[in-house]
Amino acid sequence: MEKEYIASQFALKGKVAELIPYGNGHINDTYLVTTATENGEKTSYILQRINTSIFKEPEKLMQNIGKVTDYLRCKIAEAGKDEAQDFYAAAEAFGEFRYLLSEYPADTLYETIPDFHNTPKRYERFLEVLEADKMGRAQEVQAEIAFVKERSAEMEILCDVLGTGEVPLCVTHNDTKLNNILLDKETGEAICIIDLDTVMPGSVLYDIGDSIRFGASTAAEDETNLELVHFDLALFECYVRGYSKGCKGTLTDREYELLPMGAKLMTLECGMRFLTDYLEGDVYFKIHRERHNLDRCRTQFALVADMERKWGEMKRIVEEVRGQL
Fold first, then answer.
1. Which of 59, 149, 179, 180 is the most exposed place for a label (fewest CB within 10 A)?
2. Torsion over CA of 9, 13, 16 and 21, rounded to 10 degrees?
3. What's this model's pTM, rounded to 2 decimal places?
């Protein structure tokens, strides 16, 4: 039971179903861990117990591993290979989407969902639902409510620069998740973008921001353990590089400058929408368990908070990529 308990402390998908010795190492103990979700989906992991008779300072061992793998992750992301390959390919595809449609008159398109990324209006709606509090849930989410209100001054930024023409109106996809790209099974290259029902006029910062929100998080969108939720700078850089390559110079300097804010506001807006729906009684988003929308909200806010902690690095990455074009 000790080994099963230790395995369960990691970010595994599902519960531990089996744990058996694996390999024939002579120093550390290695195990094959199999987990299973409630719907029967199985995932395999390798778990290794460090022999502290040999490695007397395991914390230093782990620091070495962390430093080296972080460095390798950055190098891998630059090349768009291995674990970041799909994310890079998606970024490049959505960048090419921007490039190919850069001369299309976006103002001739309809808004299939009016004010879809109008964050100030989303905030107004949040305040209305909060005041009504028809489900009596507001009291239990005071921290989340405060989180939103503390950032209310930033919510108009993207709409303002779009309205003044500081950033161009363009064709936006508005659902730029990785699963809306068809990828070649053999090469990993993007074949085409799908799910075009939300194509509308808007800012490219909406599309880039939502991709980063979804793809640069280290945890699932509904993760309940917020300690697992982090903003991955390597994946952020991977996306910025991939998108920059795909868009072939069609991003403006102002769009590059606001790119971190696009990621932050799309994440904040998404979390606010989950919170609004939770307060209203889960009437918009499908839920699969009690407090599901609240869990989703909290992961988004945790991601926003981590972006804020890494704000300087985000800006540095964008400036570095732009400087290399």
1. 59
2. -90
3. 0.75
